[in-house]
Design brief:
This protein is an alpha/beta fold. It has two domains: about 240 residues, Type I PLP-dependent aspartate aminotransferase-like (Major domain) (Aspartate Aminotransferase, domain 2); about 120 residues, Aspartate Aminotransferase, domain 1 (Alpha-Beta Complex), CATH 3.90.1150. About 40% of the residues lie in helices and about 15% in strands. It contains twelve helices and 14 strands. The protein has a seven-stranded mixed beta sheet with strand order 1-9-8-5-4-2-3, sandwiched between helices. A hairpin with a 2-residue loop joins strand 10 and strand 11. The longest helix is centred in the first third of the chain and has 22 residues. The protein is globular and about 65 Å long.
Length: about 375
């Protein structure tokens, strides 16, 4: 049997070769590579994709998007920011970049997103302990499904917290009919190549409905310049380059179609996987999942992964070690067992192949192999 890849960007490029080559060549011929017309065009196109009322600011990566959003919101050294322990490390890297300390809250066992009841508990205790130093909350729309934003926004308003959506895995995901990226004070997207909308390198985007904050973010990404060589605030170097913008501008036209294809593959897995030991993903009633990842659970995950690997099926674990158990973040002072739902999930989750160019017969083969596993 031919190997079934976890992802295959070569297949995507094969579909778009002429368009991609033309877009990249156009930038090369223009001789303008940073903060040019393609970047502006893509910012406008992405803003339109999310919500007509948002502004979009292109930056160097999803991690930098989170960092700059934190800085723009006023988070600084000595502050505290709430997020979840089962996210990718870049979420908390951005908090560290800002000088703040992450505070973690456990997750919902069905969605793997932030448990809003536990968020309220932490907001209450955090305000008592840290006062106005508790500044923000970063809900992560994990795997392509929106966090439960209604309660999160209510809690944030009550405790005067900025809301920064980590939408790095959720391009096109919806919450109660509105696309993520239009719900919080800021939202941050990654265009890492494997994302639902991916560049051919690093790239990121920040969205906000506040025009003054958008203006501030544009200065922050470019050394704090209001105009060239006139620096109004202290800033950084985090810019989406013209080649990546041209690639993304080409690909965004296909994003809705690709997301539908991901949902079709997820539906096929849901239908075909019959193994009763498998827990399949849950799509919540208030949202629309775009299945950046299709994540199952099995109590013997490692043995299942080895079995699939032996059958030439690639899988990945997102993520095997929660933040509080990472060596880099042992200084946070959390112990094993403090976030039992996240920890238990980390020992059982497994991401199956899912990308728009995955063939039905490949997904059916994966399902069949899982059904034969015991």
């Amino acid at each position: 049997m031919k190997m079934i890849p976890f992802g295959d960007l070569g297949r995507e490029y094969g579909e778009l070769t002429i368009e991609i080559d033309s877009a990249v060549t156009g930038v090369l011929k223009s001789g303008w590579f940073v903060l040019g017309k393609k970047g502006e065009e893509f910012e406008n196109a992405f803003a339109d994709f999310i919500d007509k009322e948002v502004y979009a600011v292109g930056v160097g990566s999803g991690t930098e998007a989170l960092h700059l959003a934190l800085v723009a919101s006023g988070v600084t050294h000595g502050d505290y920011v709430i997020t979840v322990p089962n996210t990718a490390v870049p979420t908390v890297s951005a908090i560290s970049f800002s000088g703040a300390t992450p505070l973690l809250v456990d997750i919902n066992p069905d969605t793997y997103n932030m448990d809003t009841d536990k968020l309220r508990e932490l907001a209450v205790s955090g305000k008592k302990r840290f006062g106005n130093k508790l500044k923000a909350v970063i809900p992560v729309h994990l795997y392509g499904q929106s966090a439960d934003m209604g309660p999160i926004l209510d809690i944030a308003s009550e405790f005067n917290l900025s809301v920064i959506e980590d939408a790095c895995q959720a391009h096109g995901s919806e919450y109660k009919g509105k696309r993520v990226g239009s719900l919080g004070d800021y939202a941050c997207f990654s265009f890492y190549p494997s994302k639902n909308l991916g560049a051919y390198g690093d790239g990121g985007m920040i969205t906000t409905k506040n025009p003054e904050q958008a203006r501030k973010l544009k200065m922050l990404r470019n050394y704090g310049q209001e105009k060239r060589y006139y620096h109004k605030i202290k800033g950084f170097n985090s810019r989406l380059d013209e080649i990546q913008a041209a690639v993304l501008l080409t690909k965004i036209k296909y994003l809705d179609k690709w997301n539908l294809r991901r949902r079709d593959i997820a539906g096929l897995y849901n239908q075909k996987i019959k193994n009763e030991a498998i827990t399949k993903p849950v799509e919540v009633s208030y949202g629309k999942h775009v299945f950046h990842l299709y994540v199952i659970r099995h109590p013997e995950r490692d043995r299942l992964q080895t079995y699939l690997q032996q059958q030439d099926v690639q899988t990945v674990i997102h993520y095997p070690v929660p933040i509080h158990l990472q060596e880099a973040y042992k200084d946070l002072g959390y112990a094993h067992g403090e976030f039992p739902i996240a920890e238990n999930a980390a020992s059982e989750i497994l991401s199956l192949p899912i990308f728009p160019q995955l063939r039905d017969e490949e997904a059916e083969t994966v399902a069949s192999l899982i059904n034969n596993f015991s």
